Amino acid sequence: MKSACKGRRRIGAIVLLWLGMTVSPGIPAKGAPSSPQVYRLDAAGLETLLRLHRRHGRPVLLNFWATWCEPCVQEFPALIEVRRTYPRETLGMILVSLDEPGEVEGAVLPFLRRFGIDFPIYLLDPRKVVETFALADPTWDGSIPATVLYDRKGKRVVRLVGAQKVETLKAHIDLLLNVGGKE
Fold first, then answer.
1. Domain range summary for the chain, segments of one domain joined by +
2. Are 73 and 156 contacting, i.e. CB atoms less than 8 angstroms apart?
3. Which residues of the chain fall below pLDDT 70?
């Protein structure tokens, strides 16, 4: 019995270590505790996040953006409105920045602070772009902003490329939330 517990602890420690390496804090935010949190993300980390939302029966909005992308900047208020409209228990949101890791302090954090972001943001590991894009949607060419919506079972339902209006995003999300009710 003791060896089974040790084995479980060891496996748990390995899983936590793996998660720490794939979805790990990037550069810690300076300043107030309300500073936005930015975590590095690769394909394995994205797969883990999608699996967690699927396990909880939540549809997911996955968005790729960057501070240097003007349409992304224009779309960002719509994403914030979506987050404020749909509680975390209802809709999973994964916002992934394509900014370079060296731009977190100078561009990403100031941008997020300007919008008052109070939820985690992910920074795509530049070494894992191809794998992460393929996981998000194998037919996607990498144009941003891009939003991929998944249903409660984790099935990719729609990919929207270009800046979306809040009404468009909400219409797609409402369809996901209402189709078949809570399964």
1. 23-178
2. no
3. 1-34, 179-183
